[in-house]
User: What shape does this take?
Amino acid sequence: MDMQVPKKKLSLKERYTLMTRDLAWDTSYQPKEKVYPYAGYEGIKIHDWDKWEDPFRLTMDAYWKYQSEKERKLYAIIDAYSQSNGHLGVTDARYLNAIKLFLTGVTPLEYMAHRGFAHVGRQFPGAGARVACMMQAIDEMRHAQTQIHSLSNYNKYYNGFHDFPHMYDRVWYLSVPKSFFEDAMTAGPFEFVVSIGFSFEYVLTNLLFVPFVSGAAYNGDMGTMTFGFSAQSDEARHMTLGLECIKFILEQDPANLPIVQRWIDKWTWRGVRLLSIVAAMMDYMLPKRVMSWKEAWEIYFEENGGALFKDLARYGIRMPDCAAQIAKEKDHLSHQVWATFYNYGAATDFHTWLPDAEEMDWLAQKYPDTFDKYYRPRFEFWREQADKGNRFYNKTLPMLCQTCQIPTVFTEPDDPTKICYRETTYKGDKYHFCSDHCQHIFENEPEKYVQAWLPVNQIYQGNCFDDGVDPGAPGFDPLAAVLEHCRMVHGRDNLDFEGSEDQRNFEEWRGMSKRNA
Amino acid sequence: MSKVFIALQTNDDTRPIIESILSDNPHAVANESPAMVKIDAEGRMTIRRASIEALIGRDFDLQELHTNLISLSGHIDESDDEFSLYWND
Amino acid sequence: MQIDLRTVSIKPLRHTYGHIERRFGDKPASRYQEGTYDLQPTHNFQYRPTWDPDREIFDASRTRLKMRDWYAFRDPRQYYYGTWTLARARQQETAESNFDFVESRNLASLLSPELLTLALDLLLPLRHVAWGGSMNNTAICAYGYGTAITQPCMYHAMDHLAIAQYLTRIGLLLGDAAALSSAKEHWLCAADWQALRRLVEDSFVVQDWFELYVAQNLVLDGLLYPLFYKVLVEDELSMRGGTAIAMLTQFMTEWYAESAKWVDAQVKVAVAESPGNAALVSDWIAGWQARAVAALAPMAERALGERADAVMDDLAQQFAARLAKLGVNA
Assistant: This one.
């Protein structure tokens, strides 16, 4: 017998290389430009894909092993939670409205991320980057599904969860997340990974899945806590991928810097505007609060995002210009957004309410410079009016920002008593914005943003009613027709939490769970 | 110097991991929140396989971290023996 | 397992989401249904893709196939992420113990040098074929229409990647890193692999995603897996003393048997939809089948010598029988 030569043990890195990028080859029967047709048009110059550093080195065998373990745990908790009527253990049924926003506004984004990463997972000429993107594509499907499955039990007992994909394509405030993600997905592959990897993963998911989900746990929502933390464990890989992409692009060619800087400027602002919804969720929708939006923002954006910018400084990346305005807005954002939802509570797929005295004290303590001065008087006035039977539901459609699609409700950065409006004219048409930064984003790519499907404008054009509805019929109620088109049930899904079916059922069921019937 | 962090779910699997991180990185600080702990450290944090193994008395693959990891920040350097987070500033 | 804890018996307002109820009625729905149907956005797209400005982000016109309801493509395995991952993790455990068994007993040393060389020559270039299958299924997930068919394609893409990684491990176990690089050299330069490489590279530029589905998942894999893993590894190499190799490719054999059922179900639905679809599918099959058979023949010949022709005929017959069951006019 011949002698057994002991094999050299390969390092994790060497082994991973053989398991991934070594599988690829340079095609010769088909030109590279045809196999990867979208790699060049953004102007990003990549000279050597071999310089790509793999973010996490998970081969499929290890991936299946750890992911299946996570899935097993997650579904065991979901089952136990629904079998024991865990929903009756949440602090207050008001809380569930935050979760409705989650299912209608965030879960569809996870799905979009799934398809978007499949797209770049096919299109990047570098095999190492492609494998990381493919893995992210299935992870994102996991997130969409674990959210749908966890929240399925709430849907059985509470209103507003029932038609999330249908609403995502149609409801006015959901065009904010929808346009955000479709903006990223219609961009080229490099902009997509920078936008999602940086703005969505590094900033947004950390704020959403860490402090907000910790808040869910604090409010007794085991289901959300479990899918939230379990999803974020994948996000850790995704953030690392996003960071690696940015670094890699910048290291490849100095000419890439201005392009990447423009993307970072754009997507920081796009992300900040999208997150204003999460701001309202954290400050107003959690009955028990772990930390304020502002505190979470300081930890995950200022400290953690700041560390990232400092790190990228050696490539010439600077903090985006919008940072100055962002710093000013953190004291105002959540209050202004919640006030808007309260105003338009007849057209939301969740219930709204006014903070009670104790909650206002908490807000005053967390926002000492702004809450008592600007927002408490407003909420107290509305409370007074509501108590007199004058609960005002705004039925006039607001003007939307052409870029972020949020109603133009934000104030001037230096004057919280004055609404901020900006406008520009492009090819003879006038376009409106909520801020200088949204206007600049439009002006950089007007041909993209003139296409925007703005719900308010579409309603006025008659495009948001069911087929066969006649807006000219006598007594036609446009708001009712729009709600019906969105499959929102008036009086059940919308209006005040106080007096809602959700509130009544929760009280009654909770009573039953504590007594013998 | 910027801070890196790692956030882990709090359960029986992570107890020894947290303990070993804190003892291997004396500059690290643990911040507890409902159901999670976030460990911050200036500049760099290293998780050592050997330290965890010493606490749990069995072999530990650093990729097992994925099961209970919530989030992290910083660049990653991963080998069979160590998992490090760091910033370059 | 359902446990009635008898804490509170409250009547649910509804049993499932509205879009699921409209399809299946108001009754408890499966996780597959809730995690699949109508998930892909269909209306009011904001902007046209800069990479495909003539179409919407999700657009049914990226294939010439036409369906009244794209959710007719049901996965008989009912895979959503959780069930797929759990199924694969179980198979992975078996694969792992097979690799351990072969390694710890040093079964590779029992293989004759000729047999070892033949096995490595045949199997290792397939790493690249599997990588191609992974790319193509990723593309179908990206550009296909409706979650019912795009979702399993992404799982299929990862399965192909896993197969490429198992083949890599086989190379490292029975040979070393140099064996992998010489197989790659064959893939790139050796004459008998070029028809296959050309076919794979041509599939990368197919624009119609359902044609790509047919070319990759039905035709190429439908011929390659039975030939390599059944005829060449399980029958031929085993007979010549290479049972250990068959242990290492068990994942591929089982995976192919399982996933072929899914592929069949999709093709069957597409063809049954309309005569137009049936004609398209059979044209696509005809075009790719001839090329695939020609591309695989040199490997059959390398392993089987003059018995190759009979084996290839047999393979073609089995494939024709499979197509007949799907309602395809070959």
